[in-house]
Design a protein that fits this description.
The structure holds two protein chains of two kinds. Helix content of chain A is 26%, strand content 28%. By secondary structure, chain A is an alpha/beta fold. Chain A has a single domain, classed as NADH:ubiquinone oxidoreductase Nqo5 subunit (Beta Polymerase, domain 2, 2-Layer Sandwich), CATH 3.30.460. Chain A is elongated and about 60 Å long. Chain A starts with a helix and ends in a 5-residue tail after the last helix. Chain B contains 16 helices and eight strands. Chain B has helices spanning 2-6, 48-53, 59-63, 73-87, 93-120, 126-146, 168-181, 183-191, 194-200, 208-213, 219-222, 230-233, 254-278, 334-345, 354-361, 365-369, and strands at residues 7-12, 24-30, 33-40, 155-156, 159-160, 299-306, 311-318, 327-331. In chain B, the strands form three sheets. In chain B, strands 1-2-3 form a three-stranded antiparallel beta sheet. In chain B, strands 6-7-8 form a three-stranded antiparallel beta sheet. The N and C termini of chain B lie far apart (43 Å). Classes of the chains: A alpha/beta, B alpha+beta. The A-B interface holds A 15-16, 18-19, 21, 41-45, 47, 49-50, 60, 62, 64, 66-67, 69-71, 73, 92-94, 96-98, 101, 105, 119-123, 130-131, 135, 137, 164-165 and B 41-42, 45, 47, 49-50, 54-56, 85, 212-215, 217, 226, 228, 233-235, 293, 299-304, 311, 313, 315, 317, 323-324, 326-327, 329, 331, 335-336, 339-340, 368-370.
Chain lengths: 165, 370
Amino acid sequence: MNDTLSSLNYEKRELRARQWEVLVPAEQVEGVLSLLKPQFRHLMFLTCVDWIEQGEFELVYGLFDWDRGESVLIKTRIPRDNPKFKSLRHIYLPLEVYEREVHEMFGVVFEGNDRQYEPYVLEDWDDIPPLRKDFDPEKYIETHPALANPLHDELILELREGEQL
Amino acid sequence: MREELYSYDLHMGPQHAGIHGNFAYKLKVDGEKIVEVKAVPGYLHRGFEKLMERRQWLNNVALVPRICVPEPDVNEAAYCMAVEQLANIEVPPRAVYIRTIILELARITSYLMMLGGAAAATGVYPVMYWGMGQRDLLLDLFEELTGARIYHIFMIPGGVRRDLPQGWIDKMLRVLDAIEKHIPDYYNMFFENEALVRRMKGLVKITPEQAVEMGITGPNLRATGVPYDLRKVDPYLAYPEVDFEVVTHTDGDALARNWVRFMEVGQSIQIIRQLADKLPKGAVLNKPYPAINWKVPAGSVFVHVESTKGEYGYYIVSDGQSIAPYRAYVRGPSTTHAVIAVEKLCVGLEYADFPVAESSLQICPPDLDK
């Protein structure tokens, strides 16, 4: 394990060979990312997980060390009812686009990223952010009949009978 | 007055802006010079991440290859490897080798199409015609092996669906010989072709520092001179057991990026020959789980593989309770290439060079839009 990484005083867990997850309190993520940046120069991704039952969003920053082939996932939790987080694009430039994606798909507001309000992949979206667990695509189709395919409806209902999902 | 006359908005795309699939750029142009670029993604958004949360673990195997058309197999490999990590499933060595062979064959099919596309952006079409013709031979191999030409759905958690058909390896080696025989023709038509070289030399030059800073991966990164290839740096499948050198070029321009891709075709052929030589005997599938209502133990993992476009990865979360992934995130290489790199680096180009620049970055919108 990388020296900087092993010196971090947070809960760590090995996920697979050469990959760890580190659970960091929200207010310390900026410091941890700045500390890791010189070794983990590549930001693989930023994404979000909606833990609806706990009422929390989990932000996951995936960092990669090109020289040692090690990756670390920095995970932090923020409240679901007021999802705000500081934009960290000054540390990793690609966060500009990843924060935009998370904002659109989960509704997390990244303070300081002026580009997050530009539409990313959705067009004229008029519902709650679609990757939240309480967004129901089937209900969305009901309220947007133009999107439904009438030929499939009956067949789908028939096939769905008894299915657990 | 001059501003009003010369400066205007030019919409490039979403139909064929020099890349596979639909993607648009809004350019602010002064005369012929680009002064601002804004990416407009979303034309290929199909909601895969949400769909995966609503499909069983094994159903998703049939879903994931559709995320990226030119190279679907990396999706299968990364998804299966992530699920295997979570469920702690051991893959038999023969299946590991077969998977690696498939991934390398897929690299060649993808490169033959990409190089053709890159050449066609400058008006040099023969590379594309030849490439597509030879790519078809590889698709025939895939059809015989998996029953499908594009979306193979051949890898499943625990291995591959079936063993290789009799005589398939020999046929494959003959196809590789045929492709290798024509490599000098491709080289002459592409890299000895003044019409093409002049357009690409020095176009969108990227330094290694810029590339790492912008999160650029794959051949686009290696063309700047850094030997970062996930097959070597964070090895997976049978890659630690084969011998190959990472292809790099120091120029960092459009020509260098295509040169790296071109050299990697030959490299893949060498890798497949080594794999075919060493192919172990034995079972190809270890399936200690039920086909339906399978509950994968709780946990999360990120698995990435080297695709022809760059780093391709899956971040999968299981809550241990439900029969579907709790969350599945797809990291497509084009996110940083299409948005960050193009918006920052294509300013100052003439707009006629824009499709050439884009095709040299090999942007593939489906993996960005998902």
